[in-house]
């Protein structure tokens, strides 16, 4: 599988990569974000049921949609501390960027818990890629960063996301509520422990650039 090759960044989070036989998650460099702009411009969330809670730049009209989306990623990349971090990855399929997969943690050193967020171009949905990219980022979280558990949530009327969580071994973890486009809606919450992930661990997922990134995230190996 061909993936873009670029000179290494001085900032380790931008060098991290996760590869499966189908797709790659590559650190969201500006070059990759620019290549993803046409997908955002075309529209990611185009009809109900709306998948994202508020606030969400992807609900805005173009060109404010692209500008707000870029600003949000740039701002998020600059907020990495030991108490909070969000890693942004561009999903690359057959050499082309088709979406994003994020990995998020608060006080990771204390709790070892991560959550995920993702979106895909409508042109490549219903091909099992949502499940593949979630498996890829979970491999990074558990195998690469030593996470203890992963959380996820999805609106109750988002069957695709809920099916992915159930298929990957997440257990129901209650319900919550959030607004989307200003209207209230019910969220299903999911939880996946390391114990329940291990039996599903895939041997064909590879990581790159993780050891150099761990200190940036406040993950310090025991002596």
From TrEMBL:
InterPro entries: Acyl_CoA_acyltransferase, GNAT_dom, Ribosomal_N-acetyltransferase. GO terms for cellular component: cytoplasm. GO terms for molecular function: protein N-terminal-serine acetyltransferase activity; protein-N-terminal-alanine acetyltransferase activity. Residues 44-195 form the N-acetyltransferase domain. This is GNAT family N-acetyltransferase. It comes from Actinospica acidithermotolerans.
């Amino acid at each position: 599988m061909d993936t873009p090759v670029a000179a290494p960044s001085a900032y380790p989070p931008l060098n991290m990569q996760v590869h499966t036989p189908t797709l790659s998650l590559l650190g969201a460099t500006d070059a990759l974000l620019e290549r993803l702009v046409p997908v955002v411009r075309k529209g990611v969330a185009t009809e109900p049921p709306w998948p994202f809670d508020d606030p969400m730049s992807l609900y805005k009209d173009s060109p404010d949609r692209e500008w707000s989306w870029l600003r949000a990623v740039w701002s998020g990349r600059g907020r990495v501390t030991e108490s909070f971090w969000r890693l942004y990855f561009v999903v690359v399929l057959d050499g082309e960027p088709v979406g994003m997969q994020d990995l998020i943690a608060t006080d990771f050193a204390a709790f070892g818990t991560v959550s995920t967020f993702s979106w895909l171009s409508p042109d490549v949905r219903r091909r099992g890629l949502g499940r593949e990219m979630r498996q890829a980022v979970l491999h990074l979280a558990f195998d690469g960063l030593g996470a203890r558990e992963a959380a996820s949530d999805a609106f109750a009327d988002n069957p695709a996301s809920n099916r992915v969580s159930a298929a990957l071994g997440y257990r129901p973890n209650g319900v919550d509520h959030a607004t989307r486009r200003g209207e209230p809606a019910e969220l299903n919450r999911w939880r996946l422990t390391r114990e329940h992930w291990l039996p599903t661990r895939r041997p064909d997922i590879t990581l790159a650039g993780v050891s150099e990134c761990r200190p940036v995230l406040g993950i310090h190996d025991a002596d």
